[in-house]
Write a structure and sequence with these properties.
Layout lengths: L10 E4 L2 E4 L3 H26 L4 H23 L3 H6 L1 E5 L7 H12 L5 H8 L7 H6 L1 E5 L15
Antiparallel strand pairs: 1-2, 3-4
Helix pairs in contact: 1-2, 2-4
Membrane topology: Multi-pass membrane protein
Pfam families: RDD (PF06271)
GO cellular component, one term: plasma membrane
Amino acid sequence: MLGQHRTDVHTAVVGDSEVPLATLGGRILARLVDFAIVVLPSYVVLDWVLPGKFWTVVAVVLLELIVYDLLCTVRTGTTPGKRLARIKIVRMDSGSPPGFLRAFIRAVLGLPASVMPALTALFDERTHRGGHDRLAGTIVIAAVIAGNDPAGAIIDE
């Protein structure tokens, strides 16, 4: 089932609760969906409007992706891609949504290529946090569909 997470995978203490971490597959799925929503349509339109201005188009698309990620994650910790993958971003200290400053830090530092943050997360064997998550004080967890989760990781359907 799409977005199904196993509870026997890695967990982390977030706030006062132990919660399951997002899987690598879930994180990749979320990023691909978000790229498809923002990058593909925007790139096609901008490339048509600004022909021959490749780097300008790339800069505008990256800025759009930062704004998209920031606006989506500030209050809920999710983007449409993260909702589909059943993952979310929460504050490491409380399990609540990241808020503006943390979401901003994470969006700006986590985007440049989306490869470096992912690679650094692979080397953190315990919590799978990339450098952008460490600096922002956030963590990516598997979201619970129903039930009472003290870490606030519930995604209502």
